[in-house]
Amino acid sequence: MIVWLASELMFFAALFAMYFTLRSVVPEMWEVETAKLDVPYATVNTLILVSSSFTCQIGVWKAEHSFKPYRTGGLLNIKSWGMVEWFFLTFILGSVFVAGQVMEYATLVSHGIAINSNGYGSAFYLTTGFHGLHVLGGLIAFLFVIGRAYGAKRFGHREATFATCVSYYWHFVDIVWVALFLIIYAIQ
């Protein structure tokens, strides 16, 4: 998992290099196009994704330390939640983030920023779009972890390790987004 994440890091490093190269070549385009970004909206969307890292980690803790795959009390009793409930919440938060990205894309296209409009559009959509695909991959992985928890005759070390590996990927995706957010939205 760590080796694969290192290759993913190199992939995103190449996307960052593309972004910075284009930005250095045509800085005036960045001034015009970044003014169209909705920074407060992106900030809220970022907070949703970052909060999903916390819910993911609580789920991992439930899986690793107590081998507790499911809740032991009522659904509204959060203290009784197991890994599955925390991972479902993480899945929901990640899905909200992706839906937020789609809505942002629609707004930007209506403002004239498309992937084929100019260098800024290409850089923006390639970096954020590939990140979005990685988020979708993480969401699918959460469904596999949840399915594996339900399918296991006895939830044990193997299932907990699988959950931990998926959490590594999810935290990586979140960290990459924080870097993208800082570069695209904060440092205009």
TrEMBL record:
Keyword Transmembrane helix part of the UniProt annotation: yes
GO molecular function, one term: oxidoreductase activity
Membrane topology listed for this record: Multi-pass membrane protein
Record-linked Pfam families: COX3 (PF00510)
Chief localisation class: membrane
Protein localization: Cell membrane
Recorded superkingdom: Bacteria
Domain Heme-copper oxidase subunit III family profile: 1-188
Keyword Thylakoid among record annotations: no
EC number: 7.1.1.9
Residue ranges of the TM segments: 5-22, 42-61, 82-103, 123-147, 168-187
Reaction catalyzed: 4 Fe(II)-[cytochrome c] + O2 + 8 H(+)(in) = 4 Fe(III)-[cytochrome c] + 2 H2O + 4 H(+)(out)
Keyword line: Cell membrane, Membrane, Oxidoreductase, Translocase, Transmembrane, Transmembrane helix
PROSITE patterns named in the record: COX3 (PS50253)
One GO process term, biological-process aspect: aerobic electron transport chain
GO CC annotation: plasma membrane
Catalytic class of the enzyme: translocase
Membership in a protein family: Belongs to the cytochrome c oxidase subunit 3 family.
Full protein name: cytochrome-c oxidase
